[in-house]
Amino acid sequence: MEKKRILVLCGGKFAFPSLQQLGVEHFLCGVGTGKAESEVVQVLKRESANNGLPYKAFPDKESLSGLRAWIDELQPDYIFSISFPFLLSEEVLAYGENRFINFHPGPLPAYRGPMPLFEVLRYQEKETAISVHFMNTEFDEGALILEEKVPVRNNETYGGLAVKLSERIALVALNVAEMLQYGSSIPSSMQDEGQARYFEKPDFSDTLIQWNRMPAEEIISLINACNPWNQGADTLLMGKNIKLLTASLSSETHTETPGKILALTPREELAVSCLNGQVIHVPVISSDHGILTARQFASLKNIIGYAFN
């Protein structure tokens, strides 16, 4: 039986494992990228050429005007979207009903939006999901085909979760391709709009630590959710923007106001006060001086006794 031809639209290296799996199993018939970093574009362009695969970049919304014509030229049986950053128009989707399938790295409909990994970690979820759904003209709103649960480890970072989901989506994408190969139809169900939430891409207000409002566990979760894509969670010290890349909960207690730098610990970490008498230890800081250990950062000026805000 001739393999189904699948065109993958993607946003960058997150889709690499999926492209490899689909390519090895001879499902892949082309690769399109949207808004990807230049080095990723060059890698995909080179690898596509080496493997005789059509490749096209769509760097902005205006360039999407050529997408339907390219799809008509390639004649894929299905189009998989893996972190593709742009909405598809009615003209593009009219290529074929239920031929466009998105692999969303978060639970739907509760975590719609471009960065569900950040939101899942920020809200301290114990599990996330890979949600596979048909595409329509709105982000993440099409009928669900399947949802595969994925546990979130304690203190998991954005980077660690991204790697795990990238590898897992590759297996899910291959399973869906096999389903399409041998199944006569794909069952799906409408999303529950009563449970729907859409999160915009995080801005500074989302990544800023609120020392007077957030308990220690929430601060640590925010720091992990910002590592490495934002180089850590944002805070201010002496009027300068600082980023905390990692932190751990200490067994110490305190009676100070939240955000105060209490000491440089014997393990050369900054001990910082939090709500409810809790203390976190911060070993690595990013600042205008670069990414520094707590000891290196503390040696720049006397910061003990000062407060983050």
Task: Provide a descriptive summary of the structure in words.
- This protein is α/β, with parallel strands linked by helices and 309 residues long.
- The chain folds into two domains: 6-195, Rossmann fold; 204-300, Methionyl-tRNA Fmet Formyltransferase, Chain A, domain 2.
- Helices cover 28% and strands 25% of the residues.
- It has helices at 16-24, 38-50, 67-74, 90-93, 116-122, 158-182, 204-207, 216-225, 294-300; strands at residues 6-10, 28-34, 55-58, 78-82, 100-104, 127-134, 144-151, 233-237, 240-249, 261-264, 270-273, 279-287, 290-293.
- The strands form two sheets. A seven-stranded mixed β-sheet has the order 3-2-1-4-5-6-7, with helices on both faces. Strands 8, 9, 10, 11, 12 and 13 form a six-stranded antiparallel β-sheet that branches.
- A hairpin with a 5-residue loop joins strand 10 and strand 11 (270-273).
- The radius of gyration is 23 Å and the shape is elongated.
- The model has no long low-confidence stretch (mean pLDDT 96).
